[in-house]
Design brief:
The chain has 331 residues and is an alpha/beta fold. Helix content is 42%, strand content 16%. The strands form two sheets. Strands 3-4-5-6-7-8-9-10 form an eight-stranded parallel barrel, surrounded by seven helices. The chain has a two-stranded antiparallel ribbon with strand order 1-2. The relative contact order is 0.11.
């Protein structure tokens, strides 16, 4: 069987198994749209606070608007109160997400201190109650849209409990589990332990999505081969590099792939900037895209100088002025 293959999650059918992970501050509607254009089979929103959502936060609701080309997408919620998570899930009815994901892996202190994110892996019973609440809300308000969880290997090296967390989630009704094979204590440092992904894939009855250290198409192939996971989830490896989806698909299907030239990369960056500007306005988009352009221009000989100039670019024309002669910027 090909490593690139369709995937079924409850009633959801996906054409392939290359996912864009939820990344706070990055996976907004514009970037998700670009990733779909570049071959992502499934996309996740940024994490959305259930508390802020039920309180009527307008900014919170903007986080999960579906992109025009997102035929299938997932909304990720975080929270520690089962009742609030139920109410937040019910409020997703107008968006009709294809999957509702529960964040049980975010290591950021402001999330963890509320008992949300990775803190839930320290309390599998509470995690299960939250999954039950979200599944119940989905059954009543979202026509039984499948529910997933994204977890970490554990809290720290002394508390590796991904099996217990995943088993609790599946018993409570989760249809798929994504595992970022690092502990909360690691944050995004060190090396992810893919052996945890392989072990979990053989342990639970639902599909397992692997995440961690996927920065090149070859990494995705290796993870699929070594862990037998059902899908791979690109996070930091896709930032400024949405081309990784098409490259990975090509490598899986043909054994090779082509890397886009700098001109093509910059053209896609400007398309993302335009999409974001249409959502949040030109000034805000230009501020947000500074970090993205730094990633898109990785490998340019003048990258350091460009970064210093980007902090002053607050219009699309100012961005264009930074790229007067693309060929000269190639290594």
């Amino acid at each position: 069987m090909s490593l690139y293959r369709p995937l079924c999650i409850g009633k959801l059918s996906l054409p392939g198994n290359l996912f864009l992970a939820p990344v706070a501050g990055y996976t907004d509607r514009a970037f998700r749209s670009i990733c779909v254009e570049q071959g992502a089979d499934f996309t996740y929103t940024e994490l959305v606070s259930s508390e802020a959502l039920v309180r009527g936060g307008v900014k919170t609701q903007s986080l999960f608007r579906r992109a025009d080309n997102e035929s299938r997408y997932c909304i990720q919620l975080f929270g520690s109160d089962p009742d609030v998570m139920y109410r937040a899930t019910a409020m997703l009815t107008p968006q009709r997400p294809d999957l509702v994901d529960i964040n049980c892996g975010c290591p950021v202190p402001k999330v963890v201190k509320t008992g949300s994110g990775a803190a839930l892996t320290r309390d599998p019973e509470r995690l299960a109650r939250i999954v039950e609440a979200v599944v119940h809300a989905s059954q009543e308000h979202l026509d039984n849209t499948p529910v997933s969880v994204k977890i970490r290997s554990g809290w720290d090296a002394q508390a590796i409990n991904y099996r217990e967390s995943a088993s609790a989630a599946v018993a409570a009704g989760a249809s798929i589990v994504a595992l970022h094979a690092r502990t909360r204590d690691q944050g995004y440092e060190g090396k992810s332990n893919w052996a945890h992904i392989a072990d979990l894939a053989s342990h639970v009855s639902v599909p397992v999505v692997g995440s961690g250290d996927l920065f090149a198409p070859q990494d995705a192939v290796a993870m699929l081969e070594q862990t037998a996971c059902a899908a791979v989830m690109f996070a930091r490896g896709a930032l400024g590099n949405p081309f990784i989806f098409a490259e990975t698909r090509s490598l899986l299907l043909t054994g090779s792939y082509e890397v886009p030239c700098l001109q093509d990369r910059i053209a896609v960056a400007f398309r993302q900037l335009a999409l974001l500007a249409s959502d949040v306005g030109e000034k805000s988009a230009c501020l947000e895209m500074r970090k993205q352009f730094c990633a898109y221009t990785h490998g340019m000989t003048s990258a350091a100088e460009l970064r210093s100039q980007l902090v002053h670019a607050d219009t699309i024309d100012a961005y264009r002025a930074l790229f007067p002669s693309l060929p000269a910027m190639l290594r």
